[in-house]
Amino acid sequence: MSPKPWLSQYPAGVAADIDLNDCPSMAALLEQAVARFSDRIAFHQFGVDLTYHQLDEYSARLAAYFQKDLGLNPGDRIALMLPNSLQYPIAMFAALRAGLTVVNVNPLYTAPELVNLIKDSGARAIVVLEISAATVEQALAHVSIEHVIVAHVSDMQHFPKSVIVDYVVRKRKKLVPDWTIDAAIAFKVAMTTHAATDFTKPELNHANRAFLQYTGGTTGEPKGAALTHGNVVANVLMVAAWIKPAFRESGEITLVALPLYHVAALVCQCLVTFHLGQRCVLVMNPRDIPSLVKDFATHRPTFVGGLNTLFTALMNNEDFGALDFSALRKTFGGATATQPAVAERWQKLTGTPVLEVYGLSEAAGAVTANPVTRTAFDGTIGVPLPSVRVEIRDDSGAAVGAGMPGEICVAGPSVMQGYFNRPEETERVIGPDGFFATGDIGIMDERGVIKIVDRKKDMILVSGFNVYPNEVEGVLFQHAGILEVAVVGVADSQSGETPAAFVVKKDAGLTEADVIEFARTSLAAYKVPRHVIFVNDLPKSPIGKVLRRQLRDRLVNRL
């Protein structure tokens, strides 16, 4: 197999490598986009447009506040506990322009979770939406946060709509728990206190740290991936180069339903769309499927990203099926494997195939992707992006041949510095050659096309045979009576482990025997679940990944 067999799969016009020399930092990425697209709409939410020029102005003014009023210095950490909102890109670019390190925080975190993250990151300040302010209040007794900036849903609205929005959020929907934080600073005040010219630009380059991106924690305690300006700029340029053949010069609309505190949405959707001069429509609550369907109808996006659970939830909404999808040109899937049955149903309904992307917090976003010229879902994660190197390695670290399973290992300019303050953990996953061991099992064929088999830690060993949960789930998901399914391993005295399936019913009459018999028609005997547990729902991470670790814990107490 040639060193980079995947280059033969690249669409015309996509180069093998990106050039980072012209963009030294995320601040430069912003400045370059503003210079080219000043009057275009960069972001939209709740009827409010934010142009490139306005984003430049507001972020510079807020950066000046960080510097002059809060005394934050380059290298200091600032937490952003924000859902998808217009305040997010303003606060993010303000922090990055001031040389601060952004610590993204899930706004659904509990106080103990927030305490752990703040202690680990050492953040001096936090920007939080008022909906989560009560959580911050509870955490303040246990952490040394110096400054709390509180944003309001109505901040970017004009009068009188701002008053109406405040009333609905606070009184009618009761989304804001009572909170009291002494010396809390209003986001709007912080954003408007200084002129943009008061901001002092620090010297920034590729080596400066930009983000502490905490991993989802689906396999254990979350760790902060230290991402530099160069890492993030590289991933933006990689993905932009990859999708540019499908992007028009104007008129593209990306619907961002996945959370911006996760790199998949932040880098691969938001920042790439921004870099290419197009519009992002921000969805604050993707769990509100009826509202999300209305966003589809109102904005008629041309690009959308999602994952298996989100696609399924949308298609199960009757109103979604009645929409006009003629504007939609590309659908990207990621985070978890898209089940073939879901992808087939999506393409039949919307007319666009699900193009799977594979990414990592530790690589600042996407690593591999299917070419945008593909016309059908094929169950692979595509090929390495420009400037990315991928090897499939065995347990000894040696590369395996084409068609052989092994651990996916990744190198390139977007791979993190390491885990923040965890040198031993960093050394365990990043080798001397710069390759990051992902913990995912995959197969690369002769063309360089990669297929995910499963998470290394999720593999089930049955009498010496490897069983991959994704494969078993893919079969069971085809059963008409199953809405959702997740497979994990359970200890067995005879075989070492055996598969167990957690099933959410679509058909109330479905039985354990039905599931097992269906599995037997398509799977070898050792892959067939020995246990079927019916549940009302599956535990998921904030972006929709099934938390198999929690399911395994349930089994310990049940079987």
From TrEMBL:
One of its GO terms (cellular component) is membrane. This is Long-chain-fatty-acid--CoA ligase. Gene3D superfamilies: 3.30.300.30, N-terminal domain of ligase-like. Pathway: Lipid metabolism; fatty acid beta-oxidation. Its main location: membrane. The keyword Nucleotide-binding does not apply. It is a peripheral membrane protein. InterPro entries: AMP-bd_C (IPR025110), AMP-bd_C_sf (IPR045851), AMP-binding_CS (IPR020845), AMP-dep_synth/lig_dom (IPR000873), ANL_N_sf (IPR042099), ATP-dep_AMP-bd_enzyme (IPR050237). It comes from the Bacteria. It is an enzyme of class 6 (ligase). Residues 471-545 form the AMP-binding enzyme C-terminal domain. The lineage of its organism: Bacteria, Pseudomonadati, Pseudomonadota, Betaproteobacteria, Burkholderiales. The keyword Transferase does not apply. Its EC number is 6.2.1.3. SUPFAM superfamilies: Acetyl-CoA synthetase-like. PROSITE patterns: AMP_BINDING. GO terms for molecular function: long-chain fatty acid-CoA ligase activity. Keywords: Ligase, Membrane. Belongs to the ATP-dependent AMP-binding enzyme family. It comes from Paraburkholderia caffeinitolerans. Residues 30-420 form the AMP-dependent synthetase/ligase domain. It is found in: Membrane. PANTHER family: LONG-CHAIN-FATTY-ACID--COA LIGASE.
